[in-house]
Amino acid sequence: MVLVFEDCVLDLDRRELLRASRTVATAPQVFDVLVFLAKSRERVVSRDELINAIWSGRIVSESTLASHINAARKAVGDNGEQQRVIRTIARKGFRFTADIKEVKPSDGIDSSGTSSATEIQAQCAPALPARPSIAVLPFVNLSGDKEQEYLADGVVEDIIAALSQYRWLFVVARNSSFTYKARTVDIKQVGRELGVRYVLEGSWRTAKNRVRITGQLIDATTGTHHWAGRFEGVLEDIFELQDQITESVVGAIAPQLERVEIERARRKPTESLDAYDYYLRGMARLHHGTKETIDEALLLFNKAIAADPNFASSYAMAAWCYCWRKLNGWITDRPQEIAEGVRLARQAVELDKGDAVALTRSGHALGHLAGDLPGGIALLDKALMLNPNLAAAWFLSAFLKLWHGETDAAVEHFTHAMRLSPLDPEMYRMQAGTAAAYLFMGRFDMASSWAEKAIRDLPSFLLAAAVLAASHAHAGRIAEAKCAMEHLRELDPTLHLSNIVNWLPIRRPENLATLVDGLRKAGFPE
Could you tell me the pTM of the whole model? Predict the structure, then answer.
């Protein structure tokens, strides 16, 4: 019989203990204590019962019993403070509290040596979830000050809670990941034991009133490092500092995880793709933003819907593809495509009102396609309540607020989104939105600067081209304005001053006038 728990394998037949695939030298009576407690794990074992079982009723001092319990704890990587494996029950005795899996020789497992321990643990480990999975380990406190421990733990707890708000991500609970606190761990071993693909580990260091946190994201199945970052702050308002660090870490990790998962989906054979793989491939195409890639993304999201008719985010992203087609003048059958986009968006909301991604894309699509800006803003507000670290929710909310006339709030939301995800594949969308906001505010130099950034990343972005032409014209740069206007005409020959109201749902008359007047000065046709 073999008992598997934590990172340990207790081989009863060979009387061997292995931890992290290495043999641990264990005195005979210490081994017997472990076995007896493990076999009696459903109840509390009294001191007298333990003495009778191990020492056959001989008189044993309290110090002898305590030393054997301590040795047993040390052998399995436990201690008297954590008591993860062996817990002392005051005035009652002891209880073995770690989860155990029993493996019998008849199961076809050879438990004859160290090499088989990994096989045993691998067979007993939980399977990887279908969606991406991550564990956040307690940060190592390098400050030398034990009082800093709770601050570092608080940051990790906040990161776990924030990551848990991403519905597409499986996050191991704090109680499980914190069992590795104060332990030297092997990341691959952690991944096997917790059943996760990714592990985030880090350290906490202070100097005077400053704190520095470093973190790294590792693929536990291969040991590959996917991301590393460093964050600093001042220990004045610790709660504000924890919020800032959490926001920065999560804002960096979530897009990185999506990129890594997209690459994994790309490498999969076509015949083995499931709904989530189609969704990821669709996201990869959508981020490019061109007409061809959006067409491809729409096809992939429809395949995801066919594979899983209850996958709310796929409906939302398909709806958003129609929204992007409208925004860039690519619609061929306006009534049909708008109706289909609205249908998909509403279906996504009905399927899962707790999915922040679905609410984000659907809310923005409904604002553009159905003209329901208040309703779209309400959905995006709910998405931000569900997941305040979702960059897309911040910048798409900013767009709807911008069209609704809340220009200052829009700038704040765009700025926050860019701070959350500074390397976001949708950065050109945030840049174009910021440019439009500055145009409405009459800050034409800032508007043209931001529009040029968006155009560099995506030359076919109609909004960025329009803002660039209008802002140059208002600033008196007529030559640059006419050049931008010609580019705009090439992108959408059907767009005129008279139908801009059908293109963008701008509700404040003076904002619409600023855009139209600027384009008129640039020579745009009526």
Answer: 0.73
